[in-house]
Amino acid sequence: MKYRVAVLGAGSWGTALAQVLAENGHDVRLWSHRASQVNEINQKHTNERYLPKHQLPKTIIAYSDMAKAVSDVDAVLFVVPTKAIRSVCQELVEVLQTKPVIIHASKGLEQGTHKRISEVLAEEIPAEKRQAIAVLSGPSHAEEVARHDITTITAASTEADAAKFVQTLFLNHYFRIYTNPDVIGVEMGAALKNIIAIGAGAIHGLGFGDNAKAAIMTRGLAEISRLGVAMGANPLTFIGLSGVGDLIVTCTSIHSRNWRTGNLLGQGHELSEVLNNMGMVVEGVQTTRAAKELAETMGIEMPITQTIYEVLYEHKNINEAATEIMLRDGKKENEFH
């Protein structure tokens, strides 16, 4: 069945997901606030800044006018940076005429409130203007999805029909979707793995080997699980696609902006320099602050997150930070608090 879908955000991930939808035969409207980007997509069928040397389906129509982009849609997919979610929601509500399923594929926690993205969506989009809210997340690099590499991710919603709908929208021969009712777990896994990816990149930049990389990923997963379960997540979610799956892909690939950020920090570059040269949002930097503050308010121990926070925000020497975390008091591996 053909559906009308508005994709809000024409970065690399939003563009790749728009391509999946278009190739599945849906009517795809890709919204961007940059008129030059909209013109490029419509005229050249490319998005060189975010997916260089890649040709997009001609059926993807880009808009800078939100009202036109969401006219008569069955679903709205948010793929904008976490810090922009609330303002884009407010712009959407002003022009929304239908009652679509709301989906997001962003990964982070809101600064200050520490809220998950689905919570922000629920606050800003009145119930009478939407159907269910769903999350699309998992181990997925936009560059690989765009070239049809095999990818499996999760559609999560507290309403089973909505998760199934998202699965139907995206499922094809290279893009496989599993459903999951655990929205909290899927969103927390998605957000927190970016923090650990910065640490994994830093380990590489410092010159440490595979043993250290395995250690930070494994102990990082323990931290993610501790905080997520305390918030009400199902612990099994963290050994699934949006947990360990997303952690692996983000902590081991040069495609990951969070990993690249950590790698450059480990090599001695300043954070401001790294972020200025990255060209795209590095979600893990702001998520580190939000997660550290959230963990403190909930009394959850997250030593890796705390250490990365000190490096990012308190200018702690990264070599000293690595040494100090190794010299912490001995613990039982399965200690959960």
TrEMBL record:
Pfam families reported in the protein's UniProt record: NAD_Gly3P_dh_C, NAD_Gly3P_dh_N
UniProt keyword annotations, A-Z: Cytoplasm, Lipid biosynthesis, Lipid metabolism, NAD, NADP, Nucleotide-binding, Oxidoreductase, Phospholipid biosynthesis, Phospholipid metabolism
Organism superkingdom: Bacteria
Reaction(s) this enzyme catalyzes, per UniProt: sn-glycerol 3-phosphate + NAD(+) = dihydroxyacetone phosphate + NADH + H(+); sn-glycerol 3-phosphate + NADP(+) = dihydroxyacetone phosphate + NADPH + H(+)
Binding site for NAD(+): G9, A10, G11, S12, W13, G14, A142, R257
UniProt record similarity statement: Belongs to the NAD-dependent glycerol-3-phosphate dehydrogenase family.
Function: Catalyzes the reduction of the glycolytic intermediate dihydroxyacetone phosphate (DHAP) to sn-glycerol 3-phosphate (G3P), the key precursor for phospholipid synthesis.
Protein name: Glycerol-3-phosphate dehydrogenase [NAD(P)+]
UniProt source species: Enterococcus mundtii
Gene label: gpsA
